[in-house]
């Protein structure tokens, strides 16, 4: 005997599945305009801010150094138009000449005499001494401060943040004699000029294969900008001894 055939239509094999025959819906005109607008911001904002900050810095330096020229040699008197960046050129020449003067015997003697006079001023000597030490530490070519990026546990265990090594291992800290402690600066986001200075055990500071520039970019951009290919941020197994 043959089984009776069902009079109901066979169920569609693709029932419940989305149809693949309909083309994807194109975004509307407002969605495309919104996309174009934000793309324009991404393209124009870095260029505009770079031009604005550069122009502001050049105008500031011009305001400081152009008045150092004698009045008869002022650009406004000699030329019918302004020369932007003239103060920056004067600043480079003056600072280079000052550095060359301080490098010889006469300049060193004059600098020593000036420092002796400043040391007799109660408030000024503290400001001068602190500023001099900061600039010597940051700008010294033989110093390793702020030239290495590290990963430290902060502000609690289990959470990590970027930090910059500011001083090498020390074993003479009061109450921590014999322990190797490293000075690190933990900057805040997105303004890296503020932050916290910490002494941490050597084993808790992991140096990253990352340049200081890439570290600053990550901090300013909330971690959106990744390190360049030259440094992928891979922790090193050990911390090299720093010269202080």
From TrEMBL:
Keywords tagged on the record: Membrane, Transmembrane, Transmembrane helix
Region (Disordered): 1-23
Keyword Ribonucleoprotein: no
Bilayer-crossing regions: 35-58, 78-106
InterPro entries: COV1-like (IPR007462)
Record Pfam families: DUF502
Name the record gives this protein: DUF502 domain-containing protein
Protein's organism: Parvibaculum sedimenti
Lineage, uppermost ranks: Bacteria, Pseudomonadati, Pseudomonadota, Alphaproteobacteria, Hyphomicrobiales
């Amino acid at each position: 005997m043959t089984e009776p055939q069902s009079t109901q239509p066979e169920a569609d094999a693709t029932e419940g599945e989305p149809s693949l025959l309909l083309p994807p819906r194109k975004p509307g005109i407002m969605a495309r305009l919104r996309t174009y607008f934000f793309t324009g911001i991404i393209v124009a904002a870095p260029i505009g801010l770079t031009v604005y900050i550069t122009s502001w810095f050049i105008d500031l330096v011009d305001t400081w150094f152009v008045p150092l020229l004698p009045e008869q040699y002022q650009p406004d008197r000699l030329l019918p138009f302004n020369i932007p960046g003239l103060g920056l050129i004067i600043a480079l020449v003056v600072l280079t000449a000052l550095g060359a003067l301080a490098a010889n015997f006469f300049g060193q003697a004059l600098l020593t005499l000036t420092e002796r006079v400043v040391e007799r001023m109660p408030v000024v000597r503290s400001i001068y001494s602190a500023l001099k030490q900061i600039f010597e530490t940051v700008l010294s070519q033989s110093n390793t401060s702020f030239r290495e990026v590290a990963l430290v546990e902060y502000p609690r265990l289990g959470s990590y943040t970027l930090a910059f090594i500011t001083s090498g291992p020390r074993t003479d800290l009061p109450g921590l004699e014999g322990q190797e402690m490293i000075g690190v600066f933990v900057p805040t986001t997105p303004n890296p000029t503020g932050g916290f200075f910490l002494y941490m055990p050597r084993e808790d500071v992991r140096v990253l294969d990352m340049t200081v520039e890439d570290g600053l970019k990550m901090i300013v951009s909330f971690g959106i900008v990744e390190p360049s290919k030259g440094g992928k941020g891979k922790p090193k197994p050990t911390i090299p001894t720093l010269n202080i």
